[in-house]
Amino acid sequence: MLTAALRVYRWDRRTSSISSDRLEADEALAPLGRALAVYRSHVGRARGEVRNAARAALEGLRPDRIEPVVKLLDDVATYDWPATARSAERRVAVFEAAAARHPVLDPAVARAVFEDALGSAPGALDGVVAALYADYPAFHRLARFPADYTAEALRADYDLGQAQALLYSATAVTVEARGDFKHILRYARLARLIYRLEPLAGAARAAGKRGRVAEAYRFVLDGPNSVLRKTRAYGVDFARFLAGLVRLSDWRLTADIELRRGWRPLEFTLCAEDGLGAHRAAPPEFDSALEAAVAKKFGAARGGWRLTREGAVIDAGGSLIVPDFVFRHDDGTEVVLEIAGYWTPEYIADKLTKLGRVRNANLIVAVPKALALRAGALPATVLPFRRRLLLRDLLPRLESFRR
Are residues 269 and 306 in the same domain? Predict the structure, then answer.
């Protein structure tokens, strides 16, 4: 990710809004392509030399955008570190030997000093400096650069990196979403964020009937200390979360950005249509082959039932569950299906505990036959299976909720 010192943004005092910088394709792709060519042609050279050549290749790009681009190129590149871990000791040895012969004016004496300390003496002055400071990043050697990294991918990484860097100063982040709830919760947990969940106004009204679940939610994200005071301590966590969020669809993010402590917050908004994650692969649609088989066999609709993948969030007594499938009938009946597959005993125990707290939902829990007895105590309809779920077992259980 980019550092805070490399972020570029625009803000409007009148509207109290802020936006991260984005590269224009017609202006940026040519210099980005030249910079990529520099990295590919400079394999074996020192990092400082490569970076300077890339800066020259980026001429024509706006000056405040050059260093962020070079940083992103460096992140993609692979550099070799010095073979020895005793670079500092070798420098001290050279300096001590030179101090004993001070002043060292004779080139032959200087060569002898280097040979005694390093075992050999570089021929040119720049070689001497590189040998002495090989452990410094500027003298690391470029080992390889990916051949398939394109100018479009670099442009996309810049746009995402600038948005992430702006979130370093976020004090609050909310995400409104109409799908991919399980992935949003997963990315929040991976980013070590805590969250509060509330249905959006329109979805909450539609979910008023008993047993109905909302189809759109607002996720309020923050960290443990935010309950005590407003803080920017979770900015890096928000940035990590955004890297996952942009892979999803149908979401809108709003953040309060406090550029300086005590300043009035500025509003930063992003949505899926902004295309920040267009170059990133979407997460897998199914977590297991078992779920994929159910969706394939059932199809989009069957017998008046329509199937939705992870289309709801259920409150399980303080924790949240995103069931694997939601089935909605034409008459308004709604049933959720959660599959507890062949996982570890600890995972199964935690899953059954959470499912036991579910209330006010038409719930089917599919479990391996070995777990059917334990699942029988759940406030749900149990669907035992051997290796796969059969539609002849699932459909009657769905219909039972209509009666």
Answer: no
Q: In sequence order, what are the residues at sequence separation of 6 or more whose Cβ sits closer than 8 angstroms to the Cβ of residue 85?
A: none
Cα separation, 366 vs 355, in Å, equals 11
Let me know whether 234 and 262 are in one domain. yes
Helices (runs of H) and strands (runs of E) counted in the chain: 14, 17
Domain that holds residue 249: 155-274
Residue 75 lies in a domain: no
Q: Decide if 216 is inside a domain.
A: yes
Question: What is the value of pTM for the model shown?
Answer: 0.76
Cβ contacts of 277 within 8 Å, gap of 6 or more: 160, 245, 246, 247, 248
Number of structural domains (the chain) is 3
Q: Is residue 25 part of a domain?
A: no
Residues whose CB is less than 8 angstroms from the CB of residue 80 and which lie 6 or more positions away in sequence, other chains included: 140, 141, 142, 143
- Compute the distance between CA of residue 398 and CA of residue 86 in angstroms, rounded to an integer: 70
Q: Are 157 and 92 in contact (CB under 8 A)?
A: no
Are 96 and 119 members of one domain? yes
Residue with tokens 């008023």: 208
Instruction: For the chain, 403 residues long, give each residue's pLDDT as a single digit of tens.
Output: 899 999 999 999 889 999 999 999 889 999 999 999 999 999 999 999 999 999 999 999 999 999 999 999 999 999 988 766 677 887 888 888 888 888 887 877 877 877 777 776 666 656 677 777 888 889 899 999 999 999 999 999 999 999 999 999 999 899 999 888 888 988 988 888 888 888 887 654 444 444 445 678 899 998 765 554 566 788 999 999 999 999 998 999 999 999 888 788 999 999 999 989 877 777 777 777 888 899 999 998 999 999 987 667 887 776 778 888 899 999 989 999 988 876 667 777 877 888 888 888 899 999 888 888 888 888 889 999 888 889 999 999 999 998 6
Half-sphere exposure of 14 toward its Cβ, with a 13 Å CA cutoff? Answer: 0
Same domain, 262 and 198: yes
